[in-house]
Design brief:
Length: 149
């Protein structure tokens, strides 16, 4: 899984809108706060609108605001909707599995599956509200356990 600039800018836009929840923000204001060009931001906000994360208001006082509350915006869902599967390799993907001719007896697939599960575990349990309230805890190396059978 690689988060592209589109995914990062979408999350930054959601954060800005979450910081100004209930307030209509112009695309210019969002652009200034995210440092994303208006042209690129228009495309991203259109996708976020189609995915029902934001809504737009027309007119002189128009702009964008969150459509869902921050506690209902799950970061894993946003990334999956914009970027595709969370798995680093197609053979380990649950949602978009791609077979591999070396898969039978592959010693790497368990590693890719663990990476996928770890990424999904973190992103599926993180909401926009968690980010807004700085509730993300950095994990130390000893927090990770590899289970052996």
């Amino acid at each position: 899984m690689k988060v592209s600039s589109k995914g990062e800018y979408a999350l930054r836009s959601l954060l800005v809108l979450g910081q100004h929840q209930g307030t209509v923000m112009t695309i210019q204001e969002i652009s200034e706060k995210t440092l994303v060009s208006i042209q690129y931001l228009e495309k991203i906000l259109l996708q976020l609108k189609k995915l029902d994360y934001v809504q737009s208001k027309r007119g002189a006082k128009g702009g964008y605001l969150l459509h869902k509350s921050p506690e209902n915006i799950i970061i894993g869902e946003v990334i999956r909707n914009l970027e595709g599967p969370l798995s680093p390799m197609g053979c380990a993907s649950i949602t978009q599995y791609e077979p591999c001719p070396l898969e039978q007896g592959c010693q790497l697939k368990p590693l890719w599956s663990l990476v996928r599960d770890t990424i999904a575990y973190v992103l599926e349990r993180t909401t926009l509200e968690d980010l807004l309230l700085n509730r993300i805890r950095l994990m130390k190396g000893e927090d990770f356990v590899v289970f052996k059978e």
